[in-house]
Amino acid sequence: MKTIRYALTAALLSAAAVSAHAVDQVKVWAAACANCHGTNGHAQPGMEALAGKDKDDLTQKLLDFKAGRKPATIMHQLAKGYSDDELRAIAAYFAAQKK
To answer: This protein's superkingdom (predicted)?
Structure first.
């Protein structure tokens, strides 16, 4: 019984570490957006703020940039550097930020 308890505890701790790493990775990806869209999506005047925007809308915009369906100066090139799942994670990160 102790062995099972230790195994379950180890599995939970491992899952928490993986989850924390995933959050850190998304923050690294999102930091690349800061030059134009501000820290955590709080943009300077003249740029689009991303913080608190609808996750599905952000995701669709990013996927449209990547596919070339949405015209852009640089976003279409930047979006191509991420997988669709990574773009979804970035959109979710910005959607979770307070406006």
So the answer is: Bacteria
